[in-house]
Known about the structure:
- By secondary structure, the chain is an all-beta fold.
- About 0% of the residues lie in helices and about 50% in strands.
- Strands 2, 4, 5, 6, 9, 10 and 11 form a 7-stranded mixed beta sheet that branches.
- A hairpin with a 6-residue loop joins β5 and β6 (about 55-60).
Amino acid sequence: VQLQACGGGSVQAGGSLKLSCTASGDSLSNYVVAWFRQVPGKERSFVAGINRPGGGTKKADSVAGRFSISRDNTKNMVYLQMDSLKPEDTAAYYCAAKGTFAVLTGSSSYNFWGQGTQVTVSS
């Protein structure tokens, strides 16, 4: 499966953005999909993940209550809705997928990656 992330941009603190992860080559319904983020000089960190249809979601403590992850199986897309954005949310955001069940937070567990989309939050 090939992934493509989009929807990043520049917003002021308190604003919102919605990231999209689109797939080609296979149905995202067959995968656990997660969002990670990375700032220069640091490792990629888990943001949120969604299990295969019928499963649940998981979010990092730092984004709980502000970000939500969802699927649209008809469009073969996964979304990351980001509200109440903070300057510390500034990063390149990546979508990733893996074929087994369970949302895992380690980036090494994911086999497929899209390119990053930059999110910049100004104070």
